[in-house]
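Bumping with the actual sequence this time:
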Amino acid sequence: MKVTRDGRSLNVGVTADGEGLVSHAGSALLAQVADKTGLTRALSRELRGLRQRRSGHDPGRVIRDLAVMLAEGGDCLADLRGVGDQAPLFGPVASASTAFRVIDRIAATPGLPDALRAAHARARERVWTLTGAPARVTIDLDATLIASHSDKEGAAGNFKGGYGFHPLLAYADETGEALAGELRPGNAGANTAADQIAVAEHAIGQIPEVVIEDIELLLRVDSAGACHELLDWCREGRIGFSVGYDLTDTIRTAILEIPDHAWAAALDQDGSQRRNGQVAEITDRLDLAAWPERSRVLVRRERAHPGAQLSFTDYDGHRFQVILTDQPGEIAHLERDHRARARVEDHIRNDKDTGLQNMPFRDFEHNRVWLCLVLIAHDLIAWTQALLLTGELARSEPKRLRYRLLHVAARLAFHARGARLRLQASWPWASDLANAFARLKALPAPPG
């Protein structure tokens, strides 16, 4: 083997006699954030009935370690060994077979999947106590397709000709947290109101009771959300809505009647005017009596980007998108806020790199539990960033965070009754990781 030092190439002998080295040193942050937020303790309490003997593994710790494994980038039970091989950092870790038995018993016991969600909610309440609760929570609902390459229970053909599952997920836009998810067969409809309401109710159940009355709630969905049952449910629950709306012939006719002076410049997310994009309101040109009171219809038009292929429904080189909302305010701001819904696609893409891409089990109920673990793993990353990291690292996607912090190797040195984790001084993010551990140490222990 050859390495380079001071511009010189050196031959290196490789031996297997090192001591004190640990890989994935930064992942210890995730495990300890679970402990400091009370997640581990809440999981242990909710799942204490699964513990068969005192000397066995605590089921709450098993779930915590599985969530850490997923946050690290694992996608199957066998990857739990990546955590188990780092015993000095994580302590005793269950084997894959023991972890499967915990998942199996959760899946087979009525009420235990709800117990996982309850523990997740209690930890979220603790995090919001430490970081401050947002004044508004925008719940973004979206469905995604997950391919299955074998005949698994609940897998079915989907509208794109594939085969697998079609889960529906909910995220909080202001905090970037995962609020809820429901695993569904591949042939489940994207606009099934009953499923959307069920997931939205689970999402609201994740908001701490002590602040739920004071928080403004907004449900944001693409055109699959433009159904009467869902929006009537929003109105009954005093939840605002902003959903996509189909470009029907009636809508298209109303758009073509908009005078040029009625179009206003669209806004970018920073508030500046977009070079390409205009918005207008056509509420007074439509009959919206069937929709909830105070509903409004907004339209955005923009020129197709160079190389884009226009369809016969595009007019004068413009493409149109329509929004149905009950929110007051300037149309340019409302349209900009709705367009921010695209961030939900980033969350789903990142979660597919955090265990969501693979439903590893044959049985449907086991995979439902797996989805719960993915959502917990998502929030372990989000909470670690909110509590311990600053600057770019607080906004980085999981893949970048793993490279810079979580998968960093270090030397664990023991002396007398103390220990020190020694990071490579030349690593560009060594100080950031050391500071994160210092902030972690300063966090108060959870009550109880």
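The tokens above came from a reply further down the thread. The chain has a mean pLDDT of 92.
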